[in-house]
Amino acid sequence: MISSKDSSELLHHLNRIGIALSCEKDLDRLLDLILREARIFARADAGSLFLKQGGGLIFIAAQNETLDSRGGEQKSDYYGSSVKLNNESIAGHVAVTGKVLNIPDAYHLPSEVPYRFLKKFDEENHYRTCSVLAVPMNIPNGEVIGVLQLINAMNEQKETVPFPEMFEELMLSLASQAAVAIRNAMLLEEIKQAHLDTIFRLSKAAEYRDEDTEAHLRRVTGYTIVVAKKLGLQTKEIDFLRYAAPMHDIGKLGVPDAVLLKPGKLTPEEFELMKKHTLIGAKILEGSDQKLFQIAKEIAISHHEKFNGTGYPYGLKGEAIPFYGRIVALPDVFDALTSKRVYKPAFSVAQAVDMIREESGKHFDPVVVKAFIDSLDEIVQVKEKEQT
Ligand SMILES: [Fe+2]
Ligand SMILES: [Fe+2]
Fold it and tell me: What is the spatial distance between Cα 336 and Cα 331, in angstroms, rounded to a whole number?
């Protein structure tokens, strides 16, 4: 029996979980938090989450304390796999009917039920699923967006027991709060993606007039992220770079076609005009309260400065060059070296790396050169992935 004190404590706990879920905006961390809190709340050994997608249920997260405590590899090739949206599986049945299933033993289902328990995961991992509590994740309009499945309720003696009936209602409430939090995190993710997409398209407009392409932007951004990670930058900073790096040449929008598209060598006067793309870029990006555009401006104005002070537009030297500008300078040149131009063939990665090594402390910051060379495998992966 649950006393009224216990039940008010449970409601209190549920409330705290709801607040915690609504504060987490990162989707991966949110999924992890939902499972962890739901398992603690219901004293479940394991749990998994499915989200409705494209006519199926996608398996997106799982936790299993017993398997974790054993250490070693868990069979995790189920992530991203899909379950049909019909009555054949437990999760499918819950998603279709919108009803909670509280099963005492998944291996002994009544013969009249339409769903079956798939033992494959248990067999591969030497695990025994016994009790299962599967609840629909509803958003306020009643739509089911996924299924939260808890496995093996544990008693004080760490024995597997059925889930108490009272948890059905409580878990339904938790799952609904989780559904709203997931929906919000997904919307936020969509907005971020749309934002990134807009930035890419605007930057592409600038690059489109030149020989460079969108692939150049993707590669420069990819290389920049690899280097930034190697340099130990924080996730937030890496995110800023992901969005700001594509804008490095946005000032090319203001360079006359006769200069930008000239196939041959530029005259000194023309080169002076070309150099202005750094200042024009800074003009386009300046004056924003947003940190992202402040960083983008810094990169636009400084990505052609050289560590020894011979770059442009200001001839800044060493650490007087903004750090993010010193980072992006290298991927930008590396990509130009390894890409074909009317006036030169594409150099091989090995040739380009030799040239970059040679320019350490001259054109490039030696710290950035080291991080770049130390992550060459990942750089090559980005290059192969972003070919077109
Ligand atoms: Fe540039
Ligand atoms: Fe560039």
Answer: 9
Give the percent of the chain with pLDDT over 90.
Answer: 62
H/E/C letters for each residue in 181-192?
HHHHHHHHHHHH
The β-bridge partners of 234 are none
Alpha carbon of 30 to those of 24, 70, 82: distances in Å? Answer: 6, 25, 20
What are all long-range contacts of 368-375, with beta carbons under 8 Å and residues at least 24 apart?
Answer: 368/227, 368/231, 368/326, 368/327, 368/329, 368/330, 369/330, 371/227, 371/230, 371/231, 372/223, 372/226, 372/227, 372/230, 372/330, 372/331, 372/334, 374/230, 375/226, 375/227, 375/229, 375/230
Q: In angstroms, what is the span from residue 317 Cα to ligand 2's centroid?
A: 21
Q: What is the pTM of this model?
A: 0.65
Bridging pattern class, strands 56-64 and 44-53: antiparallel
DSSP string computed for 369-387: HHHHHHTHHHHHHHHHHT-
Question: CB–CB of 307/321 below 8 Å?
Answer: yes
Strands 160-161 and 144-154: antiparallel
Say which ligand is closest to the CA of 302. 1
Q: List pLDDT tens digits, range 57-87.
A: 998 888 888 888 887 666 556 666 788 888 8
Token code pair at residue 78: 């189920």
pLDDT at 25: 85
Question: Relative to the alpha carbon of 337, which ligand is closest?
Answer: 2
Q: Which domains does the chain have, with CATH numbers?
A: 4-186 (3.30.450.40), 209-385 (1.10.3210.10)
User: Rounded to whole angstroms, what are the CA distances from 1 to 10, 153, 164, 169?
Assistant: 14, 16, 10, 16
Instruction: Please check whether residue 224 is in contact with residue 327, taking contact to mean a CB–CB distance below 8 angstroms.
Output: yes
DSSP summary character for residue 164: P
Give 249 Cα–ligand 2 centroid separation in angstroms. 6
**Which ligand has its closest atom nearest to the C-alpha of 255?**
1
- 186 residue type, one letter: M
